[in-house]
Amino acid sequence: MSSLAKLKFVSSKQRRSLSPVQQRQVKLCTKLDAQLAQARAMAAGTVYTATVLRWQVDAHTGEKRRSECPKRVTPWFWQNEGAKWHLTVRYGSRVLEITRGRNAIELADLNEVMGTISLLKAAVMAGELDEAINTAVTTIKSRFKG
């Protein structure tokens, strides 16, 4: 019993799930990570290919197995005619309106795009975009109610 006496025992309960707000934050941060990876690949002159695990049936044996498949990631940033970069933030199919009446961020170059995506990720985790996310979720949910 002397080995157990060295340990500190506490009463604890593991949290099984996240709140809906936290789930939305994690979802948006995951999408922002993909956008950041795409911007880094574009700056390096390479192509970013995201992958997802899918179940596929082998045509010869008929057995199911998981394999990595490419996933299309549409960039949220683009270069306009004036050589400025624009960045939007999306939640699902909706562009978030971060400030009233404005849906894009104008940036000077691709390095600034990467820095802004990192800044947006920190803002999401701090809860600064919760109101915009809730507005988008409400709009998306309203389409499904009959």
Give a quick precis of the structure.
By secondary structure, the protein is an alpha+beta fold. Helices cover 41% and strands 21% of the residues. The chain has a domain at 18-47 and 74-144.
Commentary on this structure:
- The protein is built from four helices and seven strands.
- The chain has 146 residues and is of the alpha+beta class.
- It has a domain at 18-47 and 74-144.
- The strands form three sheets. A three-stranded antiparallel β-sheet has the order 3-4-7.
**What does the radius of gyration come to?**
21 Å
Q: How is the main sheet built?
A: 3 strands, antiparallel
Structural class from helices and strands? alpha+beta
Mean pLDDT: 91
Strand order of the largest sheet: 3-4-7
Terminal residue distance: 64 Å
Topology:
Blueprint: H1 2-5, H2 20-44, E1 50-57, E2 64-71, E3 77-79, E4 85-88, E5 90-91, E6 94-95, E7 104-107, H3 110-125, H4 130-144
Antiparallel strand pairs: 1-2, 3-4, 4-7, 5-6
Helix pairs in contact: 2-3
